[in-house]
Amino acid sequence: MFVDQVSVYVKAGDGGNGLVAYRREKYVPKGGPAGGDGGNGGNVIFKVDEGLNTLMDFRYNRHFKAKRGENGMSKGQHGRNAAPLVVSVPPGTTVIDEDTGQVIADLTIHEQEAIIANGGRGGRGNTRFASPRNPAPDFAENGEPGEEKNIKVELKLIADVGLVGFPSVGKSTFLSVVSAARPKIADYHFTTLAPNLGVVDTGDQRSFVLADLPGLIEGAHEGVGLGHQFLRHVERTRVIIHVIDMAGTEGRDPYEDFQKINNELREYDEKLMTRPQVIAANKMDMPGSEENLQHFKEQIGEDIPVYPVSALTKEGLRDILFAVADLLETIPKFAPQLEETEEKVVYRYQKEDKGFVITRDDDGAYVVSGPRIEKLFKMTDFNRDEAIRRFARQMRTMGVDEELRNRGAEDGDTIRILQFEFEFVE
């Protein structure tokens, strides 16, 4: 089964907790704090493996969770950092954050890596908090939570050449006779339900990868037919071959077919129209094809090479394959996805985010939320009074107390952070 788009949940490892410990060695007076730091949590890393050509591995495993760091140890020993979780993906994989729509990574080259979710840092042991004012601190930090994300993983096949055209114009037959690929061939629309790849050997020590993309129809860019699912695969190709039924066996006009397919490509992505195009005028063994070809050449009026071929009798295939191979030699590898646009960076002053938001629940409780305050909360060990006092000071410094007073909070009101509740005290 060909899988080219999946939604996945990834969770990087949490940092290990810092330790509260003291030196208690014989003959060592005033040993002092000796709690070590926790280890860092593991990152979630996607790594390209050129041996893969589908996202099938994600079909049955959609949760990826890295290990947490080891807790700190006595005698100031640092906990072990967790190893990263490395997930293999095929070349051409794009990773998108589902919540923000931002592209996290675009992976195209063998063994290329990208960190999808960062592991949390280890919490600091009580050794780190020693000071002249407090030489023996009785608290340590919990590990920082690792990032968690819902991501969309898309595969855009990396093929040198893409075959596009209406259903039943002979794309699968073309692929089967010029390569060792054996796609399903039948005389009905949408026989091809997934892209097929084949390696074409031109016979003069040159070769290229050819992709047969499922038939496009009018409106494909808006989701009509099957083509919209696979238009993304055209983005990676360096040359586009239009396969056109020059005999008009289904009563369609060849030139109109050409115009409609180009329009679908343009509507999907304007940049696709900059790719070199070659026209394979197929089914030239059928009656009426010669007249249609002449008429087509008169109408096209563009500098696009047209090669009369017959995938059934194999006539003209050598010429078009040599022409495509020559064209590929003039285009850099992976050029389509490495296009760079010059962008000017404009720096604007932005007021620093407070790090928290205060809302009211239906029961009247004040709810304090936000990434920064929630991270501090999770890194606090509420089993130790000194750690609780430190968290209270951090909230006061951030301005939480003042904001609560401005919102009308009074003595005895309930304050909620995540699933925990506190009482507001003036």
UniProtKB/TrEMBL annotation:
Pfam families: DUF1967, GTP1_OBG, MMR_HSR1. The keyword GTP-binding applies. It is an enzyme of class 3 (hydrolase). Mg(2+) binds at residues 172, 192. InterPro entries: G_OBG, GTP-bd, GTP-bd_Obg/CgtA, GTP-bd_prot_GTP1/OBG_C_sf, GTP1-OBG_CS, GTP1_OBG_dom, GTP1_OBG_dom_sf, OBG_GTPase. GTP binds at residues 165-172, 190-194, 212-215, 282-285, 310-312. Keywords: Cytoplasm, GTP-binding, Hydrolase, Magnesium, Metal-binding, Nucleotide-binding. Residues 1-158 form the Obg domain. Gene3D superfamilies: GTP-binding protein OBG, C-terminal domain, GTP1/OBG domain, P-loop containing nucleotide triphosphate hydrolases. It is found in: Cytoplasm. Its EC number is 3.6.5.-. Residues 348-426 form the OCT domain. Its cofactor is Mg(2+). The keyword Cytoplasm applies. Residues 159-329 form the OBG-type G domain. PROSITE patterns: G_OBG (PS51710), GTP1_OBG (PS00905), OBG (PS51883), OCT (PS51881). It comes from the Bacteria. An essential GTPase which binds GTP, GDP and possibly (p)ppGpp with moderate affinity, with high nucleotide exchange rates and a fairly low GTP hydrolysis rate. Plays a role in control of the cell cycle, stress response, ribosome biogenesis and in those bacteria that undergo differentiation, in morphogenesis control. Monomer. Belongs to the TRAFAC class OBG-HflX-like GTPase superfamily. OBG GTPase family. This is GTPase Obg. It comes from Ornithinibacillus xuwenensis.
